[in-house]
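User: Show me an example of a complex going from sequences to structure tokens.

Assistant: Sure. Here are the input components:
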Amino acid sequence: MWARLYEGWVITLYSVLAAVTLIGLTSAIATASADDRALYSPDELAAIERHATATVHVRADPTNKVADDPKAAALGHFLFFDRHLSINDDFSCASCHKPQLGFTDGHPVAKALAVETRNTPTLINAAEDQWFFWDGRADTQWAQVLQVIENPGEFGGDRLAVAHAIYNDQGVRRAYEAVFDSLPPLSNLKLFPAHARPNAPKGSVAARAWATMSDTDRDAANRVFSNVGKAIAAYERHLVSYGSPFDHYAKALRTGDESGQAQLSLAAKRGLKLFVGRGHCDLCHSGPDFTDGQFHNLGLPVLAGEAVDTGRAGGIRSLKVNPFNAAGRYSDKRHGQAAKRLSFLPPAKSMLGAFKTPTLRNVARTAPYAHDGRFTAMTQVMQFYAEGKAASHGRLVGKREGTLMLVPHFTASEISDLVAFLRTLNSAPLPEALTTAPAHL
Amino acid sequence: MKPHHRYIAVISLAALTAALNVAPLRAASQMSMSKSMSDAPAHFKPKLSAYTTNHDFLVKIISLPHPIPYQKYFSIKFSVYDGHRPNKLLPKARLRIFAGMRHGLKQGFAHGMQSSPKIGDKKGVFPVDGMYFHMMGKWTLKVTVSDHGKKGIAYFNLPCCG
């Protein structure tokens, strides 16, 4: 009898268990198969949509009339990989903007003729930027190129040497003249010395030679120099890539494609939710390129042995006096929108210690991080934010921006989720033809 | 225990695990549904006139784009009146503007604009060119008016962005 009673009790117990199982399974399946849109608030969904890119677009650049000229892009492509633009023929743009590293160099700070003070930013989607360099001291992509060529720590070159390099190579010269006007009579070294530039060290060969040149010839040399920048920028405008797992996920959210939604890990989804929601990350890392294109002081203390970097403050001062800015003589749209921005620049001192918000697209490929490359891994960046004001101890340049108070403390698992999300921002690889040196022009 | 009992037990555990696995994200979602923490565009109808805190001046926004463009320069136009005689335009008044976001601060601003707008002066009417909102949310304009030795500050809240 006891055995029967026991058996009956067991049967009842398992019947209840079976019912619970059925309910549990139904609930789990229903939950698991639900559209991911239920995971996010309407505001979060709208924010995700603002980051997503449905189509590839490149900001127009009226200051560069050859910006979208294929011949100019082909010339620029060649010059991007050409070492003759540097003083010792050792460096090209690709030396620091390595295609295999997302067009960065993997170093904390750039290394060319000298060890520089700032991290090399990516060129992928840089055509979308409004300001260039960490301090925005160039307001067009073509003007950015020129500063690298004449920076003593980078190419160490000069505009006359560049003009001669173009002139002396038959193929490059032909390609140049097919896009721009004829080159000036560069064979006349009295008019056009081998090396010359303004702002060279006093008494140097380049400074003395520049002093001997007429205004007309200086202008002609400047024109060639700016055209080289415009051709390279025309090439760089092709370095555009979206189509990341995040973009596919955003599309799947938009269309209710549940199998597409399943392609992102749960950790990445949690990270995304945090990124567009409670983390307030997208206040600054906004829009399709995950940057507002503006400048912020994060309260990064000056590191031991590091020189004080004034950031945007110095950038504003430099930009205003740059003859190659958007309102300058070598701009193809001197009174356009880009030029007008110069009249609205804020007082330099108000931007002390502020640096440009970097894009987060391809961020997993572009370590180290921050303007001086002080963070070797994404988790370190997150930890810096997570610590809040306490992380900003030591000597600060300018004032830490108040917006940072909105960033909450992140737990270790939240940091892990955010990193999982950021890893979904790697875009589709660019075509090999774009990322390798062309054999010829 | 009979074999089918074991199966039921195993399936029960699996179902429970599956349900628990997706629960945290759902719970987080529901939490944020009740109070959105997203940096969403602000949608409210801005008040277009305000007295300065000392009531000496009435400041009116007489031209404002709708919606205010996001991360693009825009223009705005003010007119300034005598606070005690609100129909009297003050042709010699001076105007200064600061725009910023408070982000919940009761005093001061978390940050300002990264643009320094140009303020024109047409006898009490002030066209302002070069406004630029780089973040979504509620922006506050601090308008400082001075006239004949008197000074006052008026505040406007503007939504960013359409």
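The lines above are the inputs; the final block is the predicted structure for all two components together. The first helix of chain A runs from residue 2 to 32.
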